[in-house]
Amino acid sequence: MIMKMLTDEQIFDILDGCASKEILSQHQNLLTESAEYKAYFDELEAVHFDLADLNIEKPSAEFTENLLANIAYAPVKKKSWSSQLTWIFLALMSVFFVVTIGLAVFYFSNSTSAIAIPRVNNLEVINDFSTDLLVKVILLINLIVILAIFDKKVLKPYFMNRKVRLS
Q1: Which residues cross the membrane (predicted)?
Q2: Which of 13, 48, 56, 145 could be stapled to 19 by a disulfide with Cβ–Cβ 3.0 to 4.6 Å?
């Protein structure tokens, strides 16, 4: 009668002492009947006992706490003036805008002369074009440029600083 060989996992279960009775009885039969199985089992048994005799260092239960306590935390990097360039630019433009509006209100409120804007009636095509399409195109281009600058100067540095580095 030809018996089926046990798998390596079943043999290691036998060596660890956690095999079922059915596998143990099959193992005993194979040891008595098959010299090839006995030689293979002896090799695996030698490997098993060699591995069991090795002194394997196990990490302590407080390994994570000890590691985190000994890690030198990197100092907080101060932001350079170039990373604040966007805010500096916006502040300067706001000051310039407020000063310009203030000067205009001051001088025009004290002025007694009336400013007359000349009206040109012959150029209605240019007038319609400039008020409709040209203004919309210029506003769209300005919006795209402002969004590109905002993305490059504000959003990109912000998300680059938030990136978690694992190395």
Answers
A1: 87-109, 129-150
A2: 13
Q: Give the pair of three-digit tokens for residue 75.
A: 């100092």
Maximum C-alpha span of the chain? 124
| CA distances in angstroms from 114 to 108, 110, 118, 120, 121, listed in the order given | 9, 11, 13, 19, 22
Decide: 35 and 18 in contact? Cβ < 8 Å.
Answer: no
Residue 37 near residue 31 (C-beta atoms within 8 A): yes
Q: Are 30 and 2 in contact (CB under 8 A)?
A: no
Contacts of 18 (CB under 8 A, 6+ apart): none
Q: Tell me the per-residue pLDDT of 60-91, one tens digit each, with 9 for 90 and over.
A: 667 777 777 777 665 666 666 667 777 888 88
Query: DSSP letters of 50-101?
Result: HHHHS------TTHHHHHHHHSPPPPPPPPPGGGGHHHHHHHHHHHHHHHHH
Buried residues in 85-112 as b, exposed as e (16+ CB within 10 A)? eeeeeeeeeeeeeeeeeeeeeeeeeeee
